[in-house]
Fold this protein.
Amino acid sequence: MSTRRRPRTAELGTALDAVHDGATIAVGGLWFHNAPSAAVRELVRRGAADLTLFGAPPSSFTTDLLVGAGAVRRALIPHVSFEHLGLAPNVRRAVERGELELVECDEATLLGGLMATLEGLPEHPVTSLKGTDHLRSSPLAVPATTSEGLPIVAPPALTADVALLHAQEADEFGNVRHLGAPFCDPVLAKAARTVVVTVDRLVSNDDIRSSPGATTLPAYLVDAVVPLEGGAHPCSSHGLYPHDEEHLRSYLALAGEGALDRYLERWVTGPRDHADYLAAIGGPERLAALEAVA
Amino acid sequence: MSAARCSARELMAVLLARELRDGEVGMTGASSEVPVAACLLAQQTHAPSLTLILPSGIVNPRPGRLYRSASDGRWVRGAEAIGSAYDLFELSENGRLDFMFYGGVQIDRHGNINLTRTGPADGPPAFRGPGLANISFAVVCRRILLYSAAHTRRTFVERVDYLTAPGHLEGGDSRRRAGIATPGPELCVTPLATLDFDGEGVMRVRSVHPGVEERDVRSRTAFDLGGADEPWPVTPAPTQDELAVLREVVDPTGVLADTPRAAPADRRPTQELRT
């Protein structure tokens, strides 16, 4: 019998073995913030295919990259954009060509489905979806009736095989700390069978214990912690570095003109791994410089 | 207080700020520098007890400047609380919000919003929009404030191709018949005019902005705005005081201006946000 606590740190490649072709994955963060970009790049590198994808109600770079690389068959994403930088070019193109099944949903229906999983129930009725065309077009808007006989919708339970999240800090046992907004990540973790979290840096268990109120995912929810400095880039990692607007603009320019292959070669399939990617963007110095250029 | 020159986005921020009331709790959405600035301006002027919640769950940010991304991590520093997606779910399901802002790829004469798709209802869309994270706030908020940075015939349409978020639906009592208890959109601020709704839920012009010709508003709207019998009132221009607070306190770097201003001296590293 071991007398030592089992560490949950893992190599990215090993952790992502949990994502088999055809899996349902939940990708964390919101818009281009706190996104597990390095994990998503590794999925593209290894040719992940036929995925069903969901995540926080607002999504951005990671969704567009996975869709552009042809890894996604079906997505349950209420909103995907690059905010003030523009629309998501690959998602837009794939939907307009009929190549991606983009399931209409919104925060209430998506969160309803996740809440059902968290509660161990087959569905979770929500009262707030009325008057929208989603009522006829969304498979999550399953008609139901309240005990008073009023019509509502009851989104079915939504579960992921794997949640891919990015946070700023964790200890080796998997206690995770977000330094900014954890947003949907704790819910996604609880709705997934396997939880993989990339973090910019490891901290000691003593550090975690010095402020337990700051722990956003206790270790019992986490299967693998992957320390990857800059793992969110070109998205932000709240509290450590902002998003790389110049990089995102170059992504949008290439993807917008149908030249995603050039982006993938330079930034995704070209670099062997995340260390290689980090060196290619200019290392930790690039991350540090982002505050000044934003 | 005399009228002063300002950008279209500064004008819209000032006009939206005037609509906000002290003590209200409100939320902003994606790409919403203008509504966020309106809330921060209102807090600095007539509504110090207004609560602003960003779509990332951040409550009452006070960043000392505007950031263009609604969920930028730099809104965290100095904020009062950080909520989660579950908190937003609770806000919508329990109808806790007083106001919410919406823009649209299409906005129709009944104030319905399309952010999803254009073209025929079946098959792939002609244009795929960004989609909308939160429809439910359009159902449960006591006040819906619409705004659009574009006032064109493509945006202001007779009827949305896809109804993402409910405005006054088909007008009349159709919103109530759909089971929605809240009154629906109150107004819509554009770079040309402030529009509101008549008793039947039909959009009309409340006032045209200074320097804007009535015929331009009509020609850039794809539905009949009515009110041809008398001239529309002119929107009271932003005052020097409103613009001074907007530019000096809310938006010192000029995110809403036509040309950016120099960054403020206070650029502490974001790491300090960890306490």
